[in-house]
Amino acid sequence: MSGTPQNPVEKLLRTERMPHIWCPGCGIGTSVNCFARALEQANIDYKNLHVVSGIGCSGRVAGYVNVDSFHTTHGRAIPFATGLAMARPEAKVVVYSGDGDLFAIGGNHLIHAARRNIDMTVICVNNFTYGMTGGQVTPTTPYSAKASTMPYGNFEDTFNLPNLVDACGAVFVARWTIYHVRQLTRSMTKALNTPGFSFIEVLSPCPTLYQRRNKLGDGVMMVQYFKERSTIENGANTADVALGFQGDIVVGEFVERERPTFIQNYNTRMEQVLGDAFVPYEGVK
Amino acid sequence: MKADPKAVNTGTHFIDGNEACAEGAIAAGCRFVAGYPITPSTEVVEHISRRFPRLGGLFIQMEDEIASSICFQGAIWGGLKAMTVTSGPGLSLMMEHVGLAAITETPSVFVDVQRAGPSTGLPTLPAQQDIMQARWGSHGDYEVIALAPNSPQECFDHAITAFNLAEQYRCPVFFMMDECIGHMLGKVKIPAADQIEVVARKFTSRPAGEFEPFRIYDGDQPEMVRAGMGHAIHTTGLTHDERGYPAMNPQTQDTLIRRLRNKILDHTDEISIYEADQIDGSDVTIVAYGVTARVAEYAVHLARKEGLKVGLLRLTTLWPFNDRLIREVADNTKSFIVAEMNLGQMVHEVERASRSKIPVHLLDHAGGGIIEPETFVKKIKEVVR
Amino acid sequence: MESELDAKETSSSSKKKVKGTVYITEDRCKGCSFCVVFCPTGALAMGGRLNHKGYHLPELANPEKCNGCDMCGLFCPDFAIFGVRLKKKETKENA
What we know:
Chain A is of the alpha/beta class. Chain A has helices at about 30-40, 60-65, 75-85, 100-105, 105-115, 160-165, 180-190, 205-215, 220-230, 260-275; strands at about 50-55, 70, 90-100, 120-125, 170-175, 195-205, 230, 250-255. In chain A, helix 7 links the parallel strand 5 and strand 6. The longest helix of chain A is centred in the first third of the chain and has 14 residues, at about 30-40. Chain A is globular and about 65 Å long. Chain B is of the alpha/beta class. Chain B has 2 domains: about 10-195, Thiamin diphosphate (ThDP)-binding fold, Pyr/PP domains (Rossmann fold); about 275-385, Rossmann fold, CATH 3.40.50.920. Chain B contains 14 helices and 15 strands. Chain B has helices at about 15-25, 40-50, 65-75, 90-95, 95-105, 130-135, 150-170, 180, 250-265, 270, 290-305, 325-330, 345-355, 375-385; strands spanning about 10-15, 30-35, 60, 80-85, 110-115, 145, 170-180, 185-190, 235, 275, 285-290, 310-315, 315-320, 335-340, 360-365. In chain B, strand 11, helix 11 and strand 12 form a beta-alpha-beta unit. The longest helix of chain B is centred in the middle third of the chain and has 18 residues, at about 150-170. The termini of chain B are far apart. By secondary structure, chain C is mainly beta. In chain C, the strands form 2 sheets. Chain C has a 3-stranded antiparallel sheet. A two-stranded antiparallel sheet of chain C has the order 3-4. Chains in contact: A-B, A-C. The interface between A and B is large, with 45 and 45 residues.
């Protein structure tokens, strides 16, 4: 069937590895559609795009994208991506992982990469659970929601991801849900074009684990909940965007600020102090 | 390939082992270091942080050792030669990523300036208690290379060896220093750049469509690649096939894990660096490495002056362990004394390899100090009697 | 295995309206119905046919309603469907 149109996401996929392992109604694939279109809009050359994932359902994104991709260890996608971004300053490094991977075991690395303003885009698919391992509680599981390790309902307080990342100095912070495919695509494009540490939280259904355990129906029902309860407030104060169990959701682009990146800071400082003894850092061309 | 003249500090220096290690890494082509402060290793990265801005290299102090131990692997897959530096407690935090380096065949140098443990132990005092951790610390079956320098000069020379072996065998290479060697000032001769042999990374020249990053085309190692070459490579810590794609079945596991082991074990002799001194016809041979081998040299001298027939086998390569060498020595001496600053680690390898042909004695030390020469001589006399 | 969904040419009234169609890669579909629920014009419906894994496949039940906006493609978590615009005279076959 030569000449038949191609799915815009096809170019990004390792088609020989399809169909993928994500469950029916899981939102990770939807976010990858947005990512593919954002890459188009940001006209990122695939040769200079490197995707790094940690462990977990979202951690499998690296294995499905047809670019230089690295499936690293649990929680450590960001430090790996830091080294990769250092070696390849001209490349766009994207970390694509989940809420547990990035904010539980990987939390220490995330806050420091944001503090240092390492040039990377972090896409966090937040499905409020550890899906791959069977639905355990994560730092974002809403209060009172059940999880396999919270059989009587989560009694812990949760992280407000945009607030946390904003506080650490990220230069771009946005949150959308799987329902907001157009806005998510636009924010991804913007993040890809923003030098420094950019972060996007994507609320996603997890029908098999999070929703079944909490009797929240299938993927469609979760996305409809996202649709009905989300209000778009670009520029909202990230302190006011915490999430409750099946409560209201504030989405939008919350933070856009200018900060020199880690390498810019490095080169500027060294030039000031060492003058022409300084050999500017270029990494691998 | 020769070292880069701009990076080699040719000349004779009076520096300590930590600084010599940093200079050796630089001479070997290391241009990225991720590290975290930990006594007694920190001077290595401090020296790197002073030198790199003048060389176009980049040092980053990460937030912890877990981060350091994977950050430098990211830089390696970006195309740079890189290392991380730590001591016992940090090395313990790095273990998961030693395994990642092994399964992804990442040419990675882990410098461990050992201190007395376990736990916080004696941070400023020497020991050799991380030997088995270097070999078995991460989970699963895998092989590593480990070298033990025993002088500031060797910290320079063998740091280069470590980087070269890492590139040749694409595996984790441990550089097992200790506090004594790290903080020992000594003469270090740094040759001209064109006298320093550096193994360049063997990047593939195969086009993207026909290249599988984990297939063996020739020799024992897959051809290296880096991000940005347009090959859309994929690496994963999952058991993977030759394309690097997850293939989670026992057959792939069997093929992959055995290959990762054999690609090193099959070259044990080539990797094995050691010195043998007056072993033939000796009544006892001391086996030692690192700073203990320095003391052993003097102790053997004292013993020989008293007419005792003592041999000395100094191991620089700890892993892979050279069984054949031990068996050969066992045929030419009457007994072994394995001397090490731990309660017995390498002694087990010597016992195993010598297949009880001759008695194997342990001269141990709980860490925090060195084995005194007199203690050596006393032990030699006990054994020989 | 891609299936052909023919876009029926409707009467002259649809001349002004932009026309479109969808392409489905059946073996990737997991029957989650995102495409059906979030199709802005209600062109899609869950069909009776099953794919080789036994998942119900969507179908272009009301082809005249499809304007090729590709919202189905954006939503589909399995990369199994996408929409394309058809020029005036084109139908799917000669697109």
